[in-house]
Amino acid sequence: MANTQKALLIIDMQKGSFNASSPRLDTDGVVFRINALAAIFREKNLPVIFIQHDGTGSGDFEKNTTSWELLDELDVYASDILFDKYANDVFYESGFQSKLNELGVGELYITGCATEFCVESSIQSALVKDYNITVVSDGHTTADRPHLDAEKIIEHYNWVWQDMVPTKGRIEVKPFDEIVVGF
Question: Membrane-spanning regions, if any (predicted)?
Fold first, then answer.
């Protein structure tokens, strides 16, 4: 039987990524939309998966430190799944695909931080693994970079993703409001 279940991925919404030296675009709005989507997924008994970068040994995002912790503003329930990743791509040497298979997941709704790093890498990886993907266009964030501001980075990647050639799966980029109406 094919994996058909939907899951919400919340990538790297960790305290270490949200600080005064690296302010993220629309943090409050992104957190609000993630919390609202998570509530809908929980109501339908669909997996809500928080992905946390585990930088153990690197000095950044060391497991069980403040920088590794999820933002306090996120609604995290005991029924949610917390999963560590060790590179930008959540699938890289983490056993994540096995976990999704165990859950029967074939469709991913993707949110999180940082658009051009971990969100992008995980989307690309999921695409070549034939998942159906819905990127929440206003559900991911990043910071201004030396050559491009955060708003343009997000706009650029939303454009890239919606024009990608899918494999056996599909990829769509939709705003929160459109997703919740059709869910």
Answer: none
